[in-house]
Structure formats: C-alpha cells, structure tokens
Amino acid sequence: MTASPSSSPDVSPEVSREVSRDLTPDASAGPSHALHSPVIAWFEQHARDLPWRRPEAGPWGVMVSEFMLQQTPVSRVLPVYEQWLARWPRPADLAAEAPGEAVRAWGRLGYPRRALRLHGAAAAITERHGGDVPREHAQLLALPGVGEYTAAAVASFAYGQRHAVLDTNVRRVFARAATGVEYPPNATTAAERRLARELLPGDEATAARWAAASMELGALVCTAKSPDCARCPVAGLCAWRLAGKPAHDGPPRRGQTYAGTDRQVRGKLLAVLREAVGPVPQAVLDTVWNEPVQRARALDGLVSDGLVEPLDGGLYRLPQTRPGA
DNA sequence: GATGCGTGGTC
DNA sequence: TGACCAAGCAT
C-alpha cells in the first residue's frame, strides 16, 4: 500500500475533512480478483433499470439520487427523484429556490436535513463550479451533505472514475465473501478500507462497474436478513458460506430507537409545516405532541438546524431565506 | 467513536 | 408485533 492514498489537487482551505479519507489508490494497477468477473457478469444480467443509471441522468441526477438514497430504500426514492429532476433539472435551478421548497419537495423521505444539504450543495456547485457537478473527489467531499461514500459514488457512477465505493451493501458483501463473517462492524474500519482498495480493479472502467456491481449484489442477493446464496454468482468463493455461515459474533449492531424520541416529534412538526401553504401558528404546532418540554426542544432543534424559520407573532414556516443571507 | 437525525416496509 | 433494516453525514 502506498503511503498517500490520494494525490488530490486543488484542496481548498475550507476543506477541513481529511484528504486521506479518499479511498482512491494511486494509479498503480490493482490486481485482478476471483470475485470480479462473476460479480460483474451477474450485474450485466441482473442490474435494475434505475433512472439514475440511465445516461440522461447525468452527474446531477446521480448526485440527487445519492442524497436521497442515504438511509432510504430505492422504492421510496423513485417517485420523489422523478419529481425533483423534472422540477430542478440543473443544480442552478435548485439553487435559485428557497431552501424550504427543497424541504417540502423532499416529502416523507426522512432525514430532511438532507434536503437542506442538497440545496446547499446545489448553491455551492452554482457558485464555485459554474453549475457543473465537480469531478474531483476532494471537491465533491467539500460540498455539504457529501461524505466519503457519496463523493466516491458520484465520482465513480457519474464520471467513471476508480474509487472504492464503500456503502453498507458493499461492506456486507466484503464481510461475507472475503472476510468470512456475517456482518461488518458498526463503524467502517481501516481494515475494511484497505480491503476495499485491494479489491479495486486496476482498470478505471472495470473499477466503476465493480463498484456498481458489488453494491447491487448486496442490495439484491447478499441482503442483511436473508441472503439468497442459491442465486449468488460467488457462492462457491464466499468465505462465510464455506465456513458454514457462522452467526454474527461481537458487539450487537447499533439499533435505531425512534418511538418517543425528539426525532419523532421533529417529524410530526415538520409534517405540519410541509403541508401548510403559509406560516403556521405555534398553537397548531402544539397539537402534534402533548409534552411541552420535548415539543419545545424539538422545535428549537428544527430552527437551529435551519429546517424551520420562526417569524414574529409566534408563526413558523419552512425556511424562505438562505442561511447567512 | 458514539450519537442524533425520519420514515415506512418487513417478518 | 416490535425489532430490524434501508446507496450516510455531521458533530
């Protein structure tokens, strides 16, 4: 392994995140691996026809889909994605809107801060990159809402570059097929990043297909709950299966509590504001949750996150003004 | 590194 | 039926 995983140029000063998180190896040819051909061949046969995979989606379509797919299933993303791209076909179109419109159009996809960040990313793309989604991993990573995964995914899927794209699907496939355990650790480890780099095909175009193919395999066959090994193209090579599918051992995977949390209250408050045409009186918001302390905390949180804008007279609405404007 | 952050489908 | 799960990010 080379000492510096990236040669990323043009890292602007405001990029505080470490460039070393870029999983792209230097240009040295990666080794061919026994998993590559069967997984890629399977992908050619079984890949879903998703709108963001079509050529007309372009880098912006890929980026929008990646934001929406962060922790949200494909089936729920599809209709919102279509509406979004029809309404805002270019980053500048979205950037010209009030951020509250993005939050409203986000609908019930969940984690609405993603809508705000996508709006912010569109604004940054418009201001800093002439309206074109940047190609450089470091420039993508500097956009709001874009982390290591999304930067690699856009660079790979939209621009065909060679990056290790390490999402939850790929992590699970690698854990099973290569490492021989049922589930990857809670947090992505250095060992997983190293493995992903080692498995990355040396050829750029092959690496990009490998990224999409290994992710699709995890999504359709090597699923978390019930992997369908009978339909897996690498069942004969899978370390986990060959070891007799040992049960998960180690710390339990992090669960997600929801009922009774601030998150639930925030969701109810924002649902009211999304449906409302104009500003909403506090008294109406008060009806969504009967515990006043938690209700107030949730509303304050939404305001400080920029998801809700307080007006005079105890009125609230989705944000019409840009943060800092 | 551990937490907080929405929503709905599944078994 | 209540966990568990779904192409993560920011702090």
TrEMBL record:
EC number: 3.2.2.31
Catalytic activity line of the entry: Hydrolyzes free adenine bases from 7,8-dihydro-8-oxoguanine:adenine mismatched double-stranded DNA, leaving an apurinic site
HhH-GPD domain ranges (all copies): 68-220
Entry keyword annotation includes Ion transport: no
Biased composition (Basic and acidic residues): 15-24
Keyword match Metal-binding: yes
Principal EC category: hydrolase
Region called Disordered, residue ranges: 1-33
Keywords for the protein's UniProt record, in alphabetical order: 4Fe-4S, DNA damage, DNA repair, Glycosidase, Hydrolase, Iron, Iron-sulfur, Metal-binding
Record field: compositional bias (Low complexity): 1-14
InterPro entries: DNA_glycosylase, Endonuclease-III-like_CS2, Endonuclease3_FeS-loop_motif, HhH-GPD_domain, HhH_base_excis_C, HhH_motif, MIG/MutY
Needed co-factor(s): [4Fe-4S] cluster
Family membership: Belongs to the Nth/MutY family.
Protein name, per record: Adenine DNA glycosylase
Protein's organism: Streptomyces virginiae (Streptomyces cinnamonensis)
